[in-house]
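User: Sequence in, structure out. Go.
Assistant: Echoing your sequence, followed by the structure tokens.
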Amino acid sequence: MKRKRRTFTPEIKSKIALEAMKGEKTINEIAQLYEVHPNQVSAWKGEMISNASSAFDRGKRINEQAEQSARKEGKLYKKIGELSMDVEFLKKSCRKLGIELPAEYDD
């Protein structure tokens, strides 16, 4: 019978990797403590080191997303304005031609 593969949450992985980075215990001691293979502890440690800069990049990404949202919002408001002008033009044209508008479109 096969053993079920264990999965570790990012929180547990980071905890184990931080412990390995501190250097207070050896990789083998940490692996025994958490019942994982020493190679896995080393891999998580390496991954944490290589992705450490992304922890400080978060604010920049949020600002970029906010700017992108603001640009998109501006484009949408511009489009709403254009469509509103089109509707007003069509209403005015219908009145000049004597075409009766439905009550929901009449001001």
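User: And one key feature?
Assistant: Residues 10-56 form one domain.
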